[in-house]
Design a protein that fits this description.
Distance between the termini of chain A: 45 Å
Distance between the termini of chain B: 33 Å
Oligomer: heterodimer
Shape of chain A: globular
Number of domains of chain A: 2
Order of helices and strands of chain B: EEHEEEHEHEHEHEEHEHEEEHEH
Order of helices and strands of chain A: EHEEEEEHHEEEHHHHHEEHHH
Structural class of chain B: alpha/beta
Largest interface: A-B, 52 and 45 residues
Shape of chain B: globular
Structural class of chain A: alpha/beta
Strand content of chain A: 15-25%
Number of strands of chain A: 11
Chain lengths: ~350, ~280
Amino acid sequence: MSTTTFIRTADLKGLVADFNAAGIGVAGPARTSDGAVDYQSITSFDAVVLDAQPRNSLKQFFLPPTEPLFKYARQGQDVAILEVPMSFPPRVLIGARPCDAAAVEVLDRVMNWDYKDEPWFARRDATTIVTFACPGGDRSCFCTAVGLAPDATRGSDLLLAPAGDGYVVEIVTPKGQKLVDAYAKRFATGAGVDATKAYRDTARASVEGHVPARPDVIRAWVETHFEDPFWAEISMRCHGCGGCAASCPTCHCFDIVDEPETLTEGVRRRNWDTCQTSLFTMHASGHNPRHDQCGRCRQRVNHKFAIYPARFNDILCTGCGRCARTCPAGQDVTEILTRIVAMATGQGGAA
Amino acid sequence: MNVYQPFRVRIEERIDETADTRTLRLKFLDPDIAEKFDFKAGQFGEYSVFGAGECTFCIASSPTRKGYIECSFKTVGKVTSAMKDLEVGDVMGFRGPYGNAFPMEQMHGGNVVFIAGGIGLAPVRCVIWNVLDERNKFKDVTIVYGARSVADLVYKRELEDWGKRPDVKLWTTVDPGGETPDWKGQVGFVPAIVEKASPKADNSWAVICGPPVMIKYTLPVLKKLGFTEDRILTTLENRMKCGIGKCGRCNIGPVYVCKDGPVFTAAEMAKLPNEF
């Protein structure tokens, strides 16, 4: 068990005020003007909404939807490359959900695979993630099926769970410890983790059973059923819009494009991309190795539940359920995974 | 300098191979990088035109020839069209080298059969140069190269040079109907010419690159000749963006072409799902 401390709700508000005063950026889940909840910049803890899952994930704070990689300026035949700063101001993400915090750490694997992705890790270094144990999810949540939980500490620097007039604070990482030490006056002795047990148990019960917790069975089936008609069947309802990937905390595929700003100057950017579109894999010749939506739907499941586990010993999914909630066609990952387990264990086949 | 930032290279020479295929010889601007830059036969890079974007090609020159790299490309898309517009002296970008390489050391002491179709000769040419520059380390060298028509043959100067060498058996061919009145090479598809050339399989390696249909029909010929799948090498060029395993674009089943490839044996290819 990690070290714990306690913070009263009033001090949590004070803590955000302290961050503001120190020039530390703060972001957390808060209402948008249209009434939804998004992770976004905030200036007061009063804005934080903890009882609804934000529409977006934390991905954008480390891999923005679009970001400059460098600038270029042509002069005659020559070109100057102008570096963009890869240092970022300190930021605290407060009110993160455990599924979203875990996703960031899952992505550290690929972002550090032989080549270090500086933009990603520069933002990682500058950011402290203060997670709040999840109050419980809806029908689309399945974190416990992918080795996580509503109170999982993975990827978090601190994990808070409510107790009495405040929160029990689990100090997960040295970075979390540093934050507690720097603002020691805001923390106090109080209830221990035991006091949060009922809260955690309730949350866990709300997400369990939505998908069988058999990631190894899912991986083995996906690895051996590339040509299974199941993929064509589930792809029939897919429009290929990529909403699943945009909302996903772990989908990290990107495009690299040049964006001219004047005739001679411009910026090379990377932008979010998705394996759900035909252009993603289309060769310039017109040949497309992944030529139909069947292959694209398969790729998304394959990458998350077989390729990434094989490569990094980690599942590229944290069970947040956003893809299911976002899909305009009702494609439901919990149904897909449940059916895979059923097929793999001989309890059902293609419908 | 982050990993997505290219080296600057200057176009030293440009050679039109065919009506729509061009070779560029590129030299690193930074003398320090020019000095230190090294790669292995088969590796690839991301070439860029500032303002148009990046494109993935193998390095078509050989690591045995220092001081420059070459790429050959067909004008088909946005970036290659922009590359076609560049003049000698213009500055481009290059990131790399990336990916694995042909097992040159393992191939030492063996016979090598090169089989290429169309622009597929570009990655193979890198290995041909490498082998010819270290000719005494290899035994028989056979090259079978085919294109749709005489006009579509790339590296014509080099084909001529290779054809003159007593230590190279060169077979050039064009598809039926693609020949000209003065064409002295073969007429027929590459698999048939490989069968005709009938290179011995004993202590041999085959390096093959070309259109999928050419590879599909050449593999059975090689097997009939006695080549084993672990001695048949090919190189894949999937659409890529990052080239370094991050952008998620080049998966074929569990394989990342940019990291596990681009060079694969036929044995490895046989295990891959049909998605390339």
